[in-house]
Amino acid sequence: MIPRTSTQRFGIAVRSFSSSPVTRGHTSNIGKTPIKFQPSVAFNVTPTSLSVTGPLGTTSVPLEPYMTLGFPAPDTLTLSVEDAEIKKQRSMWGLTRTLIQNAVTGMSEGFSVPLYLVGVGYRAALEADPRGKCEGLSGMRINMKLGFSHPVIVPVPDHIKAEVPYPTKIVLSCTDKHQLGLFAARVRKWRPPEPYKGKVGG
Fold first, then answer.
1. Which residues, at least 6 apart from 19, have a Cβ–Cβ distance to it below 8 Å?
2. Identical topology for domains 35-109 and 112-188
3. Residue 7 and residue 14: Cα distance in Å, rounded?
4. CATH 3.90.930.12 correct for 35-109
5. Every domain of the chain and the residues it spans
6. Do 126 and 165 touch, CB atoms closer than 8 A?
7. Does domain 112-188 have CATH number 3.40.190.120?
8. pTM for this entry
9. 129-165 confidence digits (pLDDT tens)
10. Beta carbons of 38 and 105 less than 8 angstroms apart
11. CA 159, 175, 30, 114: dihedral to nearest 10 degrees?
């Protein structure tokens, strides 16, 4: 009878390991992805920021001291960090790359989001704000009928462009994706969207 070893007795899996060293370097899949841009987009790099200029305006993205920008091709921008093994550098690498991509898209094409009003009698209209154009406001407002006893009035900020192509659809546009998302959420909160359709009042 062959005696069982301790490994066999406790059912421990035995794996063979190679004696050759294995390199396990950290990286950021988002951060290392090159950014493509149109000829109409221009950049101005300083030690602390990247300025992005396009047909729709100019914006800037802050840069950390350990970041380096490169232009391997006339239509390509890359971002790298000194030491991707450091967690903070690795996380900021991906975040900053995303901010630069959003800035490039915002200044060249802009962002837009459609909102649909779904409900009996739900309607929206874009009208002049009686207060006129003042600090932070465009002078326009969205007037919505959402089943309340009163209309819902939402002033449009000066950095947002609003359109109502027909009474049940609102189209919001902006060069800043974050600011657009904030205002869209402000409009949606009056009638939270149905979770599977994303429609206001669904």
1. none
2. yes
3. 8
4. yes
5. 35-109, 112-188
6. no
7. no
8. 0.75
9. 998 888 889 999 999 999 899 999 999 999 999 999 9
10. no
11. 90
